[in-house]
Fold these 3 entries.
Entry 1:
Amino acid sequence: MRKFTLFLLTLTAIYLLPLTSGTADKPIPIRTVQIVIFAVSVAIVTVLTYLINFTKFGKAMQAVAEDATTSSLLGIDTETYIVLTFFVSSFLAGLAGSLVGSSVSIAGPYFGIAFGLKGLAVIVLGGLGSIPGAVLGGFIIGLVEAFVPGDFSAYKDAVAFAILFIMLLVRPQGLFGRRLIQKV
């Protein structure tokens, strides 16, 4: 038990250890939690992309999302796949909330509202249903927010919604989304 406690304390110390990057004149602090969040995000996106694009479960999930009635007629148990899809999305939301909560050291029922709204902007920017588009949209919004001058930091959240508004006007399907063609 003593070794396990020591292991947990060591792991916690490594997890909170700040790193630095940049130049000697202007160091950029990088916290270990940021590296952990990045590594977990890359792993989750890779697994999710593989799951959706290359497995029977992913193909069935896409079929149910496209047309549940036709999927049911083709022998796919739509109720099971709907429940499994909610399970996967709930797991991902819980994991994301845990990672963000550990990063900002805030826990409460309302701390994620701003992140959820920015997530909407990321999804619209990248294209609904496109995992690579969501990743690219997140990078774009993050980089644009990072370049907001310090004097205007109160307007940092408005940048994401300005991008959302412009994207809805210019290209409503997003960067990687497909234009929906309706047959009459």
Entry 2:
Amino acid sequence: MNLSNKWQHITSIFTHEQRLYVTVNDQLQTLDGSGFSMVLEAPVIAVRSMLNGIYYQTIDDTILRKLGASQEFSVPGCTVGLAAVLPADNRMLATAAKGMNRHESWWLSPELQPQGTSKRFYNRALPGGLFFFSGRTLNCYDENELPRWEHTPENLHVTGIFKPGKGIDSYADLLFIATDSAEMIALRLDDGQPVWRKQEAGGKFTRYENNIYSLFHHLEETDARTGETLRTTSLEYLDKQYKFYPSNEMMIYDDYILLQGTSEAMVAVLDRSTFELKDIIRTDEMIPYGKTNLIRLDNRIYLLDYAGTLYEFEL
């Protein structure tokens, strides 16, 4: 894969409607055929693509705005900025921190029309449920915020603890959650009953359509509905041949898996259908974990490293 472009001083990247957007010096720009063009010049401190639009906050972070729309949402009677904005099916939940372990949340339409206050703070909002982690307990609520079930690691007979950032997703009528002891378990959303579980699943996973991809000792593809292992392969050769030791941080696309390393400034590009290595991409600095800094768009791959350098590679 050939490096076709390289840009400096990029803060973040994301896609919306098949276009690449970046923040540069707190300004929102988009990439077109001739380079980057300005979208929003006002200082942007938080920007996200969700539901049907691009939503952002400026220096006055008590106000949430939608790009191209006149409607905005202002935190009622509060000078504390919004701490989180979560998409939840066809609406969103905006939350402001009011002090130590105190939050206030509001349900908003995609056009930022208030639809009432929320009863509590949620860590994650997924199709089929709202989730709150309290200590070692995972609580599930329905779309009306009525309690469904709760679980601790002990009553699920897992040895680790679950955390919001370790891996949680839903598909159809199932919830998938990983633990810090590398286990993964599938639960029914309606009643919380276990459906299947896996040991040595890597502690984090990525779902693509109806399959789950995880990495522990091997790269593994799992049927999300049944828990059946569909494919597995060892990636030890990456360490031996390229000095690349893979992590479980990955992005999945139709035909590619972008896999980050544990300490090297490299990304492995694998063929999703065969798990075969297509190329090793090298960057000046490492790619940050836990962010959408690996993007495949059309026939290009975009990587954003710790130093704020954005790389464009042609497939």
Entry 3:
Amino acid sequence: MGDYEAGVLGAVTDSEIRELVRSELRRQLDHDLQRRITIGTGYAYKYDGACDEMKGLDLWHSQMTVQDIHRTRGWMRLHQPVDQRLSARKIPLGPWDDEYKRVCFEYTKGLVEYYDTLTLRDMGEHEFVGEYFKDESEAALTTAHPQQPQPQGPALSEVFKRYSAERIKGGEWKPRTQKQNEENFRWLSDHFGDVPIDSIDGDKMRGFKEMLMEATTRNATKNPKPLAPRTINNVLIAASALFNYAKANKYIRENPAEGLSIKMKKGKGASYDKFTMDDLGRIFTVEGLDGRNNTKLWRFGFLS
């Protein structure tokens, strides 16, 4: 992207915005690699940017912060590094310009990829560089990290739409259940976006669980509270049910959400939630009892 003189700025293209962000984050990744090589076992992540909100955070909390910014559409929170790069390139954009907001969005998206790259480096792939940060010549080379097959499955929202339609058609979801499942699904869609469902693997779902453990209640204008363990489990169980449906319909091979719920210790004297009228109706319909062993129901006073 070349320099722009005030007053003659035309529309900044998406490719120019991406290159502005890519080059800056790639510079930071190259610096990170040099530190890993020279420091060796004493290496520790250090934020190398201009955002006050990120300074002093370790790698995990930095990653969670950026994911939260992206999930909540708070892209303008990263205006400081954006302002710095625009000033260095002499590009006269400000918060009132649509292009400025697009740069903030692209920078946030780039940071998500940036922290994914750093996480893989911490896991042993010290020289790993994500596809987002490669220039055209690098992308054309055959590297030690061959490209994985591109996801081919339907979008997350499409699978949820089909899943919901079947549950409603089969009478399994009443309006209240449907509303709760839609709310649970919104956590997934806000975190991942409308990606192909087969692009979500176990690592990404573990990141999703970690995000939930750091998240606060929705729509809380005052004193937001951390999500309760039961709420987190409800979201994870709903996600696992959705992925089981996707697996059964051959959209994915494995359920990436299986076994992720939090183990909860039941306190002394803790009680279970009461059955709702819908629950009782489903349990004691003729269809519900058909084909079952009813010989022990006398204990509950329902059969004589």
